[in-house]
Amino acid sequence: MKIINLGEKNSLLNRYIAEIRDVVIQKDSMRFRRNLERIGEIFAYEISKTLTYSPKEVETPLGIANCNLSNDKIVLSTILRAGLPLHQGLLNYFDKAENSFIAAYRKYGKDNKFSIQLEYASTPSVENKIVIISDPMLATGASAVLAYDRLLESGTPIHTHFVCPVASKYGIDYLSKNLPHKKTTFWTAAIDEELTNKSYIVPGLGDAGDLAYGDKI
């Protein structure tokens, strides 16, 4: 699996990552959502550089312009509910993409142990398409692998991109061991070393779903 950390280079992206981590700025849920959307747009632009292109003729009012346009069919997939603002940012740029939504959550048992429950998936065929799976955070990596496996039930993609702005090293290692190396790329902007005994990323940013949409019962 190829790993690309956009946060290693100085850019405006680093400001948005800092703001979604900032406990003061996080109090503004609308700004938190908008920052995730902006981050999605930046990742979409970077991913667009990896697509296949061919020249197309475009008729203007005064003549014909030759433009290089992408040939790829794209499916955007996200894990509900935290991934929705990030998904929207990707969709703002890949506005002709098909869309997939997967509901997954942690079900805790004793001693802070949990399993990932995948209860809902709505997806088109991913056969011979470029798939982009987005989630604001990658902790253990278990939900990302389950989402990927679920999408494979709808076909075999040409390539799959994972977009997780904040990730743990543990989660990246887990994906590297459980995903095909040549057909997956992992995109992030921050890699944190620590997971707590509840598998929360430190320093991380907290619960992205709650910060975006409010506390849940």
Key attributes of the depicted protein:
217 residues; alpha/beta; Rossmann fold; seven-stranded mixed sheet; 30% helix
Q: Enumerate the spans where pLDDT stays under 50 for 5 or more consecutive residues.
A: none
Oligomer: single chain
User: How would you sum up the global shape?
Assistant: globular
Q: Kindly, what is the distance between the CA atoms of the first and last residues, rounded to a whole number of angstroms?
A: 37 Å
What's the CATH C level?
A: Alpha Beta
Mean of residue pLDDT values: 93
Major sheet: 7 strands, mixed
Cα-atom Rg, whole angstroms? 18 Å
Please give the count of helices.
6
CATH names the topology as Rossmann fold
Spatial order of strands in the largest sheet? 1-11-9-7-4-5-6
Order of helices and strands: EHHEEEHEEEEHEEHEEEEH
CATH architecture: 3-Layer(aba) Sandwich
Extended strand count: 14
Count of spatially separate domains: 1
Strand content: 25-35%
Structural class, judged by helices and strands? alpha/beta
Q: Tell me the helix content.
A: 25-40%
What does this structure look like?
The protein has a single domain (2-53, 72-213), classed as 3-Layer(aba) Sandwich (Rossmann fold). The protein is 30% helix and 34% strand. A seven-stranded mixed β-sheet has the order 1-11-9-7-4-5-6, with helices on both faces. The protein is of the alpha/beta class. The N and C termini lie far apart (37 Å).
Write the layout of secondary structure elements.
Elements: E1 2-5, H1 13-21, H2 29-48, E2 53-60, E3 63-70, E4 74-80, H3 84-93, E5 98-108, E6 114-122, E7 130-134, E8 137-138, H4 142-152, E9 159-163, E10 166-168, H5 169-178, E11 184-188, E12 190-192, E13 194-195, E14 201-202, H6 208-213
Parallel strand pairs: 1-11, 4-5, 4-7, 7-9, 8-10, 9-11, 10-12
Antiparallel strand pairs: 2-3, 5-6, 13-14
Helix pairs in contact: 1-2, 2-3
